[in-house]
Fold these 4 entries.
Entry 1:
Amino acid sequence: VRLVESGGDLVQAGGSLRLSCTMSENSYRINTIGWHRQAPGKQRELVAGFRRDGTSEYADSVKGRFTVSRDDAKKSVYLQMNSLKPDDTAVYYCNVDLTTDWGERYSYWGQGTQVTVSS
């Protein structure tokens, strides 16, 4: 399974961006799917995503500003980011955790897309 992200860019504080992630296939059962980010010198962290039961979750730092959505027919997950802050600057990664028909569990990552927010 390949994940291809797009939408990263340089934006001023207060601006908006929409990230997209498309999977090469989604014939397996998705456990979790969402977005993580990693800023320089920091650990990778969950930003927003969907749990196995389909409910969404968000990091406290982005609640009220970011919205995660998915379109299973298009094999895609999106991250709408509003009111961006310089602290949101990071490489954003799409991640999917899935289970195959034969019961094996895998986690896949995209290549990352850079989001830079200038003050």
Entry 2:
Amino acid sequence: QVQLVESGGGFVQAGDSLRLSCAASGRTFNLHNMGWFRQAPGKEREFVAAIMRSGGSTYYASSVKGRFTISRDNAKNTVYLQMNSLRPEDTAVYYCAADMKRLPPSDYWGQGTQVTVSS
């Protein structure tokens, strides 16, 4: 069982940056692929970014590629999402996910953190 806790969300202006963090419990963090998803009001949850357990490969949705960067620190059991050049359409609840097998991950989910980007 893996518990995930996101943090770092907030209210920002268009063009600003935010860094989200997702802290994982347990001793098997380095065995899990990790990812970020988001869900805007009235829309389905969508994939944002993912990183393999080794941290060697990363994947991004086309809408965020070049603006967002996913990274992980296995020593700290934490995955990050650096979000630059934020746009109003990035407004959503952002969720962290973990999975030992699948990519994008879908086995364990955090509770989400709200990101609001004002124009």
Entry 3:
Amino acid sequence: QVQLQESGGGLVQAGGSLSLSCAASGSIFRVGTMSWYRQAPGREREQVARVTGGGTADYYGSAEGRFTISRDNVKNTLTLQMNSLKPEDTAIYYCYARITAPNSGTHDYWGQGTQVTVSS
């Protein structure tokens, strides 16, 4: 069974940095696009950044210029380096991946989320 597990959230002061990690485990044939999403209280989940299997990265909203997404295709891990954090970055951050598993096809997978809190 495929699972995504995030780590690295926590509390940081405004202007600080945090690095989030996500590891895919289980029976995996191929990992396609991987992304980070976030959801703040009372708001809809929004995409923060994504990276294709070939390494092409895109950033959305205020993440441009402050966050860096990267992946390791051997270890099936995803990282989000967040710099110059602002209180409005406070949210639960979710890892997403499009994964092909042997004998079960291609599906979307989500992690359980990790809390990021930025104090002013």
Entry 4:
Amino acid sequence: QVQLVESGGGLVQPGGSLRLSCAASGSISSIYAMGWYRQAPGKQRELVAASISGGRTNYADSVKGRFTISRDNAKSTVYLHMNSLKPEDTAVYFCNVATLGGHAYWGQGTQVTVSS
């Protein structure tokens, strides 16, 4: 089992920045990938960014060049640095962890609202 605690969401003006954090605990040695998804009202949950063991990262096209995912393995924490935020980035952001055993775990979600 892996437990996830997210923090860092909030209200920000267009063009602003936020940093999301997700701390993992439990069976952290089994973690293969850590990432972030988001779900806007009326839309499907979508991948935003992922960090895979070994250093590979993936980003949604809509956030490339604006968002950066980073991972502190010593703290079992993944971060999402979000810059140049747009109103269309407004969503609930969920931390996700995938394990070597094929299990997926989700955080409780944190609201990000981009509005003037």
